[in-house]
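To the wet lab folks,

You asked to see what we're planning to order before we commit. Fair enough. Below is the target structure as tokens, and below that is the sequence we designed to fit it. If anything looks off to you, flag it before the synthesis order goes out.
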């Protein structure tokens, strides 16, 4: 897939300076496409992060991309749909077939698009039951729960498989995304890249985002 602005860049606020959250968001708003909010419950992943009360006070024009790294994601939908989240992703590993069907329907009914995430060890075949109903697949290229991990190149085979089967699908990748790995992701067929430290750790946020796009 050719490098272009058609590849969306989604900064993850998990890596920003939380003491200056609004300023950090302001610094990427002119250049980014979406803004990701990682929601962790300390159970599905061994860490805790944002809830809706924090995000409720955040001002941004960027579409909110909510990544639910939680057990029982159905219990967390309403709080984020109430924030007018544009997109909500839940994990395959936290759901069964019936739960996935209900989640996708509830997310769509709430006015958002729905995605399903795959941890590095989870194959695409695990979500064959829902692929034709979701709007996005998130391929995790690190183990979820912590930022700053090294990119796992083996997961690119899942991106290639999905792109071959679903040419128009939004394929998002998250974890270890820097200039070099972003190129691999785009070439494999990903068209939405989530990055935290590569963006919020850079002095020039515009340059950092452009480098992830490959421009």
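Sequence we intend to order:
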């Amino acid at each position: 897939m050719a490098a272009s602005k058609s590849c969306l860049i989604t900064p993850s606020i998990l890596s920003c300076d939380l003491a200056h959250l609004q300023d950090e968001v302001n610094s990427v708003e002119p250049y980014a496409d979406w803004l990701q909010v990682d929601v962790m419950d300390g159970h599905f992943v061994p860490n805790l992060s944002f809830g809706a009360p924090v995000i409720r006070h955040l001002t941004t024009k960027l579409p909110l991309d909510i990544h639910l790294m939680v057990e029982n994601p159905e219990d967390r939908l309403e709080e984020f749909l109430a924030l007018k989240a544009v997109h909500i992703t839940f994990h395959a590993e936290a759901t069964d077939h019936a739960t996935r069907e209900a989640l996708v329907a509830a997310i769509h009914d709430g006015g958002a698009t729905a995605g399903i995430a795959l941890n590095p060890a989870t194959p695409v075949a695990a979500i064959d039951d829902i692929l034709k109903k979701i709007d996005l697949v998130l391929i995790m290229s690190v183990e979820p729960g912590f930022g700053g991990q090294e990119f796992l190149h083996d997961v690119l085979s899942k991106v290639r498989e999905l792109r071959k089967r679903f040419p128009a699908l939004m394929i998002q990748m998250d974890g270890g995304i820097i200039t070099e790995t972003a190129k691999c992701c785009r070439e494999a067929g990903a068209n939405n890249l989530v990055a935290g430290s590569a963006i919020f750790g850079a002095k020039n946020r515009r340059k950092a985002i452009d480098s992830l796009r490959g421009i």
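Structural context that might help your review: The first strand starts at residue 8 and ends at 11. Residues 159 and 165 are 10 Å apart (CA to CA).

Thanks,
Computational group
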